[in-house]
């Protein structure tokens, strides 16, 4: 393989940036390493490596494998820093440092002691979306919300900080975002009435620097009522409380368990907030700001620059946490800094990431039926709001009424599984769900640390379609159009990887790693790994050879039936029934499979 | 690949044999299937398949993989019957039927409900050495000693029988032997004072037909005092009680947890019995017959034809249960029906399997030091007895004295990991341990269901050798000589497979599947599987292509530290310390990896 020159990013490094960040960005630009879960700060999940390409990917072989020693859902991916691979597991969140020069020999292993009481307060399996690297440290955010900085060489604990309280339903599944001299972390617990927040810790000391809640008083949510905007307008005072009835915002959800992006030039961090609590919309009148919102915040202060709430007053659990993919593309003849986001609600949004202007909002699965689409007329009082179809409004149908045939299901047209972007083709490669639901809200009362869900769900494949529960699609974010679509029997719960070789990789819940032609979607290779895949494909180089790595281990929300041994169709927040057939294809696991071309 | 003609065995089928057996033997002779854990009734673990051979084995690739959904030690192997693969797991002893025509889709899954209280009474990990097939049924012998017959097509339970009582320490890890119209099963619990026995159940009904204890009155041990022989002499009356003091034989051990062989012409079943209980020899004066004994019994009645006690009055826990490999070979110009056995005690025995005559008894690891060898002079009063070196006699050194530097360690020069036989080269391919020990016996009292061990052990690599804890060797059973030896860092705890392609396969505790030239021992291929290997390599054909399958999942006695999370060096009956470095190489797992040549 020819060595690739380090990619020089189009963006100049901003002056005030800490040197740790400069090093990290240089490493991100080196396609031989995989230094951050999201591939790079832009969440593009694109690799410049092209040794494995359309012509030869069909010859791919398994190079080596490793069991993580843990069962249940394995999300995220390993990192590769130099000759070391860092591998994490779901609860109990073991971290391995593997020596790639010695066939993956274990250099060190870190196994936190965590109270297993955290397991029942994790909504959607005991997943963890992986560790991060910066400044010689590996950052692990444990299920119990302990953030740990480990010396990357020795595995020794450098510092640890406690971000939340599992006894109140506060847990973690997300990776962290190292930015400048801080580590930015989220929190889970939207099904337990947790009020979501994002917190920055000092990278060297673990001291808390800022915290921004998703709802609450202005000083909690870090807005400037005059300068923080929503669709171009200042949010005004008390925006995080005045769309709530009474104190409901205190148990308002809007958790922050997704992927984080960063624009170094703007020094802005992008992420989305989750569903408002409870799932019974009648209990929380109002728009429930800022749940279901894309947020742009200053990395150093947490101050919000702009918000965009995609699903005001959610009635379907369409958490807005999916990744924000940052691109530079021409729109109407002008180069713009864009943010593209495939939301749970079935709409794909293209926005100007500097201003927060909404450019495109289109369904990325034609079966989406709860909305007729977003009002795009800036003059309309409905501007930027999805127009709700009454038949599928669980609020309008009322409590204790089963609203049937809603598409997508609560787990959305896409959930946490991250999409990839091919900058050459300007195409987004998107793992999707093709699932609909029945949803019956009911009244629920809040007790700290107890489920605060308030709806009974059933999920099933989108009716009158190909019969499967997923598609892997290519999306044009400017035209707002599907380019091609591959039907899949189950939701594609794995993160995609696009490569300069013209090949895009993804995994399936049955356990296949698949490689397709990025341009056409034609299948070029598939391999049955030990267990269902909900991890994200990554790639790296070792000794001048390109490798592709993927974690297997069925689970996550889609695989919760298998992962937690549930069989009642309505269990697992409604997911068990729809995915029951998964047990005909795969069993619990926890393995890394690494591929390469034959010698 | 050219289809191979069904091997016509040199033996005529005996007249009285049930038709189920005729079908089973025909299937065993079809190298395209793998119908019994041991490869065939002879325990040769040899395959006539030669598509994968010395020339091309270096190109082997992983074809597909499957997680079993269970962690800890995975012993045994899958079976292949036609287009179906049957896969088992350690406790809870799940059985999967996989459709090979549909990429291993799960046809059915059987998961017994077993009381987890059985786990702490399993001495050496929660292993199971696999299912057996006969007469349209899959036979599973669960950890809790329930024997279950499952319909091979549907997975429905046809019958089940209870063979023992875990509350008294009776458990099971062994596979069963289907013979004629019976299923023959053993029992574990030598570390709990269980009195071992072998039991035959009716294959269609599950009714018990006969049971033969290892010690006790003649009617319990099924001997004919006049006609059952030991080294050519009748055993005489009360042979199972008169070498014990008092009633000690009632808690005498001699469990039967190993592999079983069968000679259809003689209608004899061969197996070995385990250590006498307790491990403190001072508590059980006498030869402790018939612990540590090779037994030949009539398959239909259980009546013993001959016995050979290898280690009278054991002082080191050298269970005699290792497999008996049946061959027909020329000895001094005469074709003989032989039985070759690599005992834990470090001696490899070649016997006439019809008469029970001892032909060869030689050390198969030069470090063996507890004995100077077996007295082979039929005129001697020591005939057939190993001569004990006083320095290493834990009995002579006495209770509460630490006898140091004993070779081999309690887990023997070989433990349960079965050897293979290449009939062309007349070579045995033997996975071995290269481990020594310190052994300090102490007085212990018996309580049903409680450990009845009475010794503290420490294990370590054989001193003044290559530093590793294992060797993979080729053995000439007529000359009693090692032909070649491959040093390994850890004990080779995996069962070997020899093939007509001139290639022998085995797995390592670090997780490598290795292929070597059977003639020379030269390494031809290796691949790092997800977890340490203690399973046995098997091979089969599907759609005219040869496949090689192996279970990974570190554990067993050698891997008990990892498997059960033990760290005190003396824990795990002394094995934890010696194998501690394993955690630098591998983690818990449970996966099948299937290999084939590239297309
Ligand atoms: O509201 C929350 O706090 C929260 C947390 C999580 C999580 O932490 O994994 C999920 C969800 N919600 C959720 O709605 C969801 O669909 C989901 C899927 C998954 C997954 O990993 O498969 N987690 C979560
Ligand atoms: O005495 C017994 O009943 C008994 C049972 C077992 C077993 O069932 O696995 C083992 C042993 N002993 C034993 O001595 C031994 O070395 C051993 C190794 C293993 C293994 O599977 O790795 N089992 C056993």
From TrEMBL, chains A, B:
Domain Pyrrolo-quinoline quinone repeat span(s) in chain numbering: 34-363, 491-548
Cofactor(s) listed: pyrroloquinoline quinone; Ca(2+)
Signal sequence interval, chain numbering: 1-22
Active site: 317 (proton acceptor)
Record-listed Ca(2+) binding positions: 191, 275, 317
InterPro entries associated with the record: PQQ_b-propeller_rpt, PQQ_MeOH/EtOH_DH, PQQ_rpt_dom, Quinoprotein_ADH-like_sf, Quinoprotein_DH_CS
Disulfide bond positions: 123-124
Keyword field: Calcium, Disulfide bond, Metal-binding, Oxidoreductase, PQQ, Signal
Gene Ontology terms: cellular component: membrane; outer membrane-bounded periplasmic space
One Pfam family linked to the record: PQQ
Co-factor: note: Binds 1 PQQ group per subunit.
Membrane-spanning intervals of the chain: none
Single Gene Ontology MF annotation: oxidoreductase activity, acting on CH-OH group of donors
Enzyme Commission number: 1.1.2.-
Residue sites binding pyrroloquinoline quinone per the record: 75, 129, 173, 255
Main enzyme class: oxidoreductase
Family assignment from sequence similarity: Belongs to the bacterial PQQ dehydrogenase family.
PANTHER family cross-referenced by the UniProt entry: QUINOPROTEIN ALCOHOL DEHYDROGENASE (CYTOCHROME C), QUINOPROTEIN GLUCOSE DEHYDROGENASE
Name of the molecule in the record: PQQ-dependent dehydrogenase, methanol/ethanol family
Organism per entry: Thalassococcus profundi
Lineage: Bacteria, Pseudomonadati, Pseudomonadota, Alphaproteobacteria, Rhodobacterales
């Amino acid at each position: 393989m020819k060595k690739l020159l380090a990619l020089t990013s189009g963006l100049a490094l901003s002056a005030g940036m800490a040197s740790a960040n400069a090093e990290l960005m240089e490493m991100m630009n080196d396609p031989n390493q995989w230094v951050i879960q999201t591939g790079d700060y832009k969440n593009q999940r694109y690799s410049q490596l092209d040794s494995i390409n359309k012509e030869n990917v069909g010859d791919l072989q398994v190079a080596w494998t490793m069991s993580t020693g843990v069962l249940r859902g394995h999300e995220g991916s390993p990192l590769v820093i130099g000759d070391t691979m860092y591998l994490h597991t779901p609860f109990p969140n073991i971290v391995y440092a593997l020596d790639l020069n010695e066939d993956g020999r274990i250099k060190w292993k870190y196994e936190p002691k965590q109270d297993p009481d955290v397991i029942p307060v994790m909504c959607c399996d005991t997943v963890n979306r992986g560790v991060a690297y910066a400044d010689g440290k590996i950052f692990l955010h444990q299920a119990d919300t302990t953030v740990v900085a480990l010396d990357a060489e020795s595995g020794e604990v450098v510092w640890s900080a406690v971000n939340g309280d599992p006894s109140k339903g506060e847990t973690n599944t997300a990776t962290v975002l190292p930015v400048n001299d801080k580590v930015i972390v989220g929190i889970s617990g939207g099904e337990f009435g947790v009020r979501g927040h994002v917190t920055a810790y000092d990278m060297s000391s673990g001291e808390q620097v800022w915290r921004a809640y998703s709802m609450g008083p202005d000083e909690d949510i870090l807005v400037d009522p005059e300068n923080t905007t929503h669709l171009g307008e200042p949010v005004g005072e008390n925006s995080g409380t005045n769309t709530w009835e009474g104190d409901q915002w205190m148990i308002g959800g809007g958790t922050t368990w997704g992927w984080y992006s960063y624009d170094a030039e703007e020094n802005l961090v992008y992420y989305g907030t989750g569903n408002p609590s409870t799932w019974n919309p009648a209990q929380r009148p109002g728009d429930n700001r800022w749940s279901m919102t894309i947020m742009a915040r200053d990395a150093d202060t947490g101050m919000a620059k702009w918000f965009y709430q995609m699903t005001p007053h959610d009635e379907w659990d369409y958490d807005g946490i999916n990744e924000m993919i940052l691109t530079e593309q021409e729109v109407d003849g002008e180069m713009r800094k864009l943010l593209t986001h495939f939301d749970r609600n079935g709409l794909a949004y293209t926005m100007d990431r500097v201003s927060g202007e909404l450019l495109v909002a289109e369904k990325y699965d034609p079966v989406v039926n709860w909305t007729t689409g977003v009002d795009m007329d800036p003059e309309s009082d409905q501007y930027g709001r999805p127009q709700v179809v009454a038949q599928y409004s669980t609020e309008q149908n009322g409590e204790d009424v089963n609203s049937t045939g809603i598409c997508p299901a609560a787990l959305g047209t896409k959930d946490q599984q991250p999409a990839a972007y091919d900058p050459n083709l300007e195409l987004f490669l998107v793992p999707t769900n093709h699932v609909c639901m029945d949803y019956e809200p009911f009244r629920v009362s809040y007790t700290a640390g107890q489920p605060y869900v308030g709806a009974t769900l059933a999920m099933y494949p989108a009716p009158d379609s190909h019969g499967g529960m997923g598609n892997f699609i290519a999306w044009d974010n400017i035209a707002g159009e599907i380019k091609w679509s591959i039907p899949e029997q189950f939701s594609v719960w794995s993160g995609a990887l696009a490569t300069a070789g013209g090949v895009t990789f993804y995994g399936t819940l049955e356990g296949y790693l698949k490689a397709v032609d990025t341009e056409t979607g034609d299948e070029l290779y598939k391999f049955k790994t030990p267990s269902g895949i909900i991890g994200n494909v990554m790639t790296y180089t070792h000794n001048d050879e390109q490798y592709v790595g993927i974690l297997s281990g069925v689970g996550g929300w889609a695989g919760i039936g298998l992962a937690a041994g549930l069989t009642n169709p309505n269990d697992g927040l409604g997911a068990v029934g729809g995915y029951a057939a998964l047990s005909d294809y795969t069993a619990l696991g926890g393995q890394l499979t690494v591929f390469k071309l034959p010698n």
